[in-house]
Design goal:
six-stranded antiparallel beta sheet, 2 domains, globular, RmlC-like_jellyroll, Cupin_2, 4 helices, Jelly Rolls, alpha+beta, isomerase, Mannose-6-phosphate isomerase-like protein (Cupin superfamily)
Length: 203
């Protein structure tokens, strides 16, 4: 909480500074590139300083969260998703489950696969946080004719009714964030391995 109070206070300071700068700009009517450049550089300097000073405090507060992994839903929650995904060593870890949406973290081993699947009643969003993958999409199980390479920061949108699979073709674990709307798994679901996931689906 202290972090966000400090950020808000810093924002107020920034607004006041910008107000002062633009006031001077308007009074002198310096319509020039030089003046605009000074304004931009001032904004950048203030912003960089705020983030640099707050980073250590923010990281400290984040470490006070409950032991990972844990399902933090349905409470309001803020986290560095990329960092969380890189810390996840389970095939699937449910991070947040609400009434209408669920966020999970996935770790696909080298040469491993998510598994061919289709969801008839939900949409899915996936984001690659780290690694290299091959996405396979199709309108039927026997027609997976669309394939795409994905890596860090790439996102995949899978509408309900579309068959899909992701293969780790890199030389390191493929770490992803997966979002289901509505939720697909029970609150707090953790699958250490793909075998555990298959067993859960069959039960």
């Amino acid at each position: 909480m202290a972090y966000f109070v400090k950020r808000f206070t810093g924002l107020i300071t920034k607004v006041r500074l910008l107000s002062h700068i633009f006031s001077k700009y308007h009074q002198k009517r310096y319509h020039s590139y030089f003046t605009a450049h000074i304004i931009i550089e001032t904004i950048k300097s203030v912003n960089d300083a705020m983030f640099e000073n707050d980073k250590t405090e923010f990281d400290s507060e984040m470490t006070n969260l409950p032991e990972f992994p844990s399902d933090f839903g349905p409470n309001p929650f803020i986290i560095d998703m990329q960092k969380a995904a890189r810390q996840n060593d389970n095939f699937r870890t449910t991070l947040w489950t609400g009434d209408h949406l669920q966020v999970t973290l996935m770790n696909i081993p080298v040469k491993g696969v998510v598994g061919l699947e289709v969801h008839s009643d939900l949409d899915q969003f996936l984001r690659v946080e780290e690694g290299l993958g091959l996405v396979q999409l199709g309108t039927s199980k026997l027609s997976m004719d669309s394939q795409y390479l994905v890596f860090d920061n790439y996102s995949i949108f899978v509408p309900a009714g579309i068959w899909h699979n992701i293969v780790n073709i890199g030389n390191q674990p493929l770490r992803m964030t997966s979002v289901y709307a509505p939720p697909h798994y029970e609150w707090g679901t953790v699958h250490p391995t793909k075998a555990d996931s298959i067993q859960n689906d069959e039960s």
